[in-house]
Design goal:
The protein is built from 21 helices and ten strands. By secondary structure, it is mainly α. Among the domains are: 209 residues, Lysozyme (Orthogonal Bundle), CATH 1.10.530.10; 95 residues, LysM domain (Membrane-bound Lytic Murein Transglycosylase D, Chain A). The chain has a two-stranded antiparallel ribbon with strand order 1-2. Strands 3-4 form a two-stranded antiparallel ribbon. Helix 3 packs across helix 10 and helix 4 packs across helix 7. It starts with 36 loop residues before the first helix and ends in a 7-residue tail after the last strand. 41% of the residues are buried. This is Membrane-bound lytic murein transglycosylase D. Belongs to the transglycosylase Slt family. GO terms for molecular function: lytic endotransglycosylase activity.
Length: 562
């Protein structure tokens, strides 16, 4: 599953002073999401400022407080006990993002699930540096805690490093290994970078976070502009890109929910305060297949823990560490100490004969010429008779990380393959391929697999300004008004509200919940979100005669298992 919300979308390529990342694949739009625009419109209509006393509709006054375990026992409790940032709960942007997270619970749950193998290491490094433990929540904002997250602008990993910033922070990137995707190495680099920014802005964490997102150059320019105009230079008053003005509120919204999750209808999970993974040093170049066999786990699982490893083996003479399940680390170290290093490589050797060429050998062994060159450190096509060549396993030249596991979906009454595919933005063909003939006829209660991350890249969005119309927005983005209405679930005659966000090249994300408004009916809600009425009833355990009440929360997406 891809991530929750975006990082930065403002950094130019190769600018080492610019942001670490941008909108990652599967992440929500970086501007205020459509799901939260109702709150913004209401506040704007009332003339509220960022200090508005508006309370997110998801907040509940009658709730049983969440019982947190002792910090020594629970990792999330440990994070919560180390909060140091000012909460800024009164700010409208923080409250709007609180509402967003509280209604997009599937996204939040999957982020917390993905954090499990890496969170202990992140918290350990944050505490070692005496940083606010809110920083351990930042990868939720950046990547949804997905170490394989990629962005269209080139940012990568948990912390969404751009190539230039990765080079600036000495994160290695080559054919074998990408340190940006290494959860341990990238965490160390990200926290070092944040510490440097913290010092740059005289101990102001909000400015440091803004600079992490937009780049220190932009923050410096915004401060200089404010000083020139005799204006305040704190984060909340600076003229920063929209992505950056929403960046810190996203983190503070997570902090706010974590302080009282039951208040917002969020069931925050427990996680033992113990490492789930350990770093093991390798004695030499090691095949991922061999290491997985020694560990007694699948190669796919090992690769998911080590997305920085781009090839079939670790780099010869390069990065020599693997992240492995904690329970298996000790036995793995013992096996590595006893094994002949030559047995750690799953490869073939070819002795060059007369008539051989790289292209012929590549065709014969089912690999690419590029992989042969890289495996043997060749810079051209020349090989000599008698030369020993390493032949990588077929497919080992592919650099794409393994896909995330499928999600299980429980078929609801009235579902069709088309509706399920449309809801999760996958094709009907991919659903059939993932489930075989079992999905030719669907029945309520049937479990099917949603292939891949089941979340598409977030659509591009524009913020509506006074005087805008659907026609003008459609013209400026080379789409039709009909497409805009369909993607944003807008009826004819629905007025545009300045400050709201419009998706301009794909469907706006479907929220987990919808708050019933006066005049709503099950039919109008189902039609708005491209659902069947029976599905909406089934999702909310409603009888055929049930009535709707304004303010009631309806579930729009079934709970899914990661």
């Amino acid at each position: 599953m891809a991530g929750l919300v975006s990082g930065c979308a403002t950094a130019p390529h190769g600018d080492t002073s610019a942001a670490t990342g941008d909108s990652t694949s599967g992440k929500e739009p970086s501007t205020v999401p459509a799901a939260a625009s109702k709150a913004l419109r209401q506040a704007a209509a009332n003339g509220d400022t960022d200090q508005t006393s508006y309370e997110a509709p998801a907040a509940r006054t009658n709730y049983v407080p969440h019982k947190w375990p002792a910090p020594s026992q629970d990792l999330w409790s440990k994070i919560r006990s180390g909060f140091k940032l000012a909460p800024n709960d009164e700010r409208r942007s923080v409250r709007v993002w609180t509402q967003f997270y509280a209604t997009h619970t599937n996204h939040l749950s999957l982020s917390l699930q993905r954090a499990k193998p890496f969170l202990w290491h992140v918290v350990h490094q944050v505490e070692k540096r005496n940083m606010p433990t809110e920083i351990a929540l930042l990868p939720i904002v950046e990547s949804g805690y997905n170490p394989s997250a990629k962005s269209y602008m080139g940012a990568s990993g948990l912390w969404q490093f751009m190539p230039g910033t990765a080079d600036h922070m000495s994160l290695p990137r080559d054919w074998w290994y990408d340190g940006r995707d290494d959860p341990i190495a990238s965490t160390d680099a990200a926290l070092n970078y944040l510490q440097t920014l913290h010092q740059r802005y005289d101990g102001n964490w909000l400015l440091a976070l803004a600079a992490y997102n937009a780049g220190p150059g932009r923050v410096d320019n915004a401060i200089a502009k404010a000083r020139a105009n005799d204006q305040p230079t704190d984060y909340w008053d600076l003229d920063l890109p929209d992505e950056t003005t929403q960046y810190v509120p996203q983190l503070l919204a997570l902090r706010r929910i974590m302080m009282t999750p039951a208040r917002f209808g969020v069931n925050w999970p427990k996680l033992a305060n113990a490492p789930r993974t350990r770093v093991v040093k390798l004695p030499g170049q090691t095949s991922m297949k061999v290491a997985a066999h020694m560990l007694g786990i699948s190669e796919t699982r090992l690769r998911k823990l080590n997305p920085g490893m781009r090839r079939w083996a670790s780099e010869p003479g390069g990065h020599d560490e693997l992240l492995v399940p904690a329970a298996k680390a000790s036995a793995f170290r013992s096996k590595l100490a006893r094994i002949d290093p030559s047995h750690l490589i799953d490869r073939r050797t070819h002795i060059v004969r007369r008539g051989d060429s790289l292209s012929r050998l590549a065709h014969s062994y089912g690999v690419s010429v590029a992989s042969l060159r890289q495996a043997n450190n060749l810079h051209g096509n020349r090989i000599r008779i008698g030369q020993s060549l390493t032949v990588p396993r077929p497919g080992s030249h592919e650099s794409a990380p393994p896909s995330e596991p499928t999600q299980t979906y429980v078929v609801q009454s009235g579902d069709t393959l088309w509706h399920i595919a449309h809801r999760y933005s996958v094709s009907v063909a991919s659903l059939k391929s993932a489930n075989g003939s079992s999905v030719n006829t669907l029945r309520p209660g049937q479990k099917i697999e949603i292939p891949g991350s089941a979340k598409p890249p977030a659509p591009s969005t524009v913020v509506v300004h006074a005087g805008d119309s659907l026609w003008s927005i459609a013209k400026n983005n080379d789409v039709t008004v009909k497409q805009l209405r369909r993607w944003n679930r807008m009826d004819k005659g629905t007025p545009l509200q300045p400050g709201s966000t419009i998706a301009v090249d794909g469907p706006a994300p479907l929220p987990s919940f919808y708050e019933v408004e006066p005049g709503d009916s099950l039919w109008s809600i189902a039609n708005r979100f491209s659902m069947q009425v029976n599905t909406l009833r089934s999702l909310n355990d409603m009888s055929s005669g049930a009535t709707l009440q304004p303010g009631e929360r309806l579930r729009l997406q079934p709970e899914v298992s990661g």
